[in-house]
Amino acid sequence: LYLNLHPSKKKPIYRTGFKIYPLVGALPEFLKNRHRFLDWTTDVLASCPTSTTVFRRPGKVQGIITANPLNIEHMLKNNFENYPKGERVLFLLEDFLGQGIFNSDGNIWKVQRKTASHEFNTKSLRNFAMQSAKEEIQTRLIPLLKKAAEMNHPIDVQEILERFAFDNVCKVAFNVDPACLDGDGTSGWEFMRAFEDAATLSSRRFMYVVPFLWRIKKLLNIGSERRLKESISTVHDFAEKIIRSRIEENTGEKDTDLLSRFIANDENSMEFLRDIVISFILAGRDTTSSALTWFFWLLSSRPDVERNILNELKSIRTRYGKVIGDTYNLDEIREMHYLHAAISEALRLYPPVPLDTKACREDDIMPDGTFVGKGWFVTYHTYAMGRMETLWGKDCREYSPERWMENGTCRRENPFRFPVFHAGPRMCLGKDMAYIQMKSIAASVVERFEMDVVDKDTCPGHVMSLTLRMKGGLRVRVKERCADVVD
Ligand code: HEM
Fold it and tell me: What top-level branch of life does the organism fall under (predicted)?
């Protein structure tokens, strides 16, 4: 339902992108399309004059969904205070995330943001993250892929990347190596599994047609809510044990990881520290792995793009006197403009956070004239934005890294047109770190291995979790590249 406020008459007009039925509103359509929610809502938004639509369900939940950059700039920056995450979202995720940076508003958020953004800008943290990624690539990822190539076994690249990202973000968050990429059976592996369950089961709370059904299940301690409680308890126990031992050995000096930097402030309680660490792990865990999974899938059917990446890597190796197998440092990674473009293009089509929702604090009018009522949800649809002809032209659904290139470098995009990393005061803190990690992995893998995707011609589906995961994973056969082809 597209609602427009005529400035002259100040009388709202309702127009719809969704089919609305008497009494039940958009519910039948929602149920019919729940399994393809992102594509369904993309089509609806594309048919609306300003790429914005109002969403109604029976009961009091209602809000707007928008893919309009002006509206997004308004809610994420110009009228930021009016669009917090809101009590509903905070409440649904509170059992798992507590009041960590990812799940807080107002002062609680501001305090964490201030410290975290200061630390994220330090060279020492960036170097530490870079070093952790390098080690994980050299000692775990490459040997694992070599072995898969020797055995000619198909592997699930998504799962491998998820384990990689989990190891990496745990190192950055609290300097613990769960060694998930090394194999199963470790306590870190149990932590990762529990973390995954907790994230997936928490996100399911958003999809209940009867919103409070999960609360009844929680009260009775049955089904998914029981499993959620168990997984949260495993995650919390693991994190608390580490934090406790770190507090005990606290020398008062800042260490390299984030936790130590927060511990240095004596005022932070155990719960506060736990929530921060968990928020960071959640933020950095599935996002980079999701992005790279879609990137490798897109690349598998585009040998021309792969060739351009190989050529770029070759010229960097020549310039810096490197050979295949050496890891790249920060300066070299920064010079990988085409690779940057190829990853950004994958992020455009498959944003790891496809939807993001805020709550409206006071009645407001969006720049496109859409009225938003107090208490409504406001969702911006990053996935739909990557598929809008109005934003990216007629070839918007094509994978084309070239659209990012300008005079040999990857151009910057307006974050409100490309809100893949959010925008405004709450913009993703890990963006640079994420690109460094993704480019390091992509460069090391592409120059050494060919990836032959099993079922290349089938377009994979996606699973709605907190991030956009590929349904069934990405199964590939890996083959070591011949050196003469690379050179
Ligand atoms: C491709 C990779 C990534 C993408 C696409 C991404 C995207 C996002 C998005 C959309 C948000 C806003 C979420 C919301 O507030 O609802 C966000 C927030 C955040 N991200 Fe990332 N992220 C990525 C990687 C990372 C990494 C690697 C880290 C850290 C290790 C990180 C740390 C954070 C933090 C701490 C926030 C919360 C910021 C705040 O609320 O002030 N992200 N990210």
Answer: Eukaryota
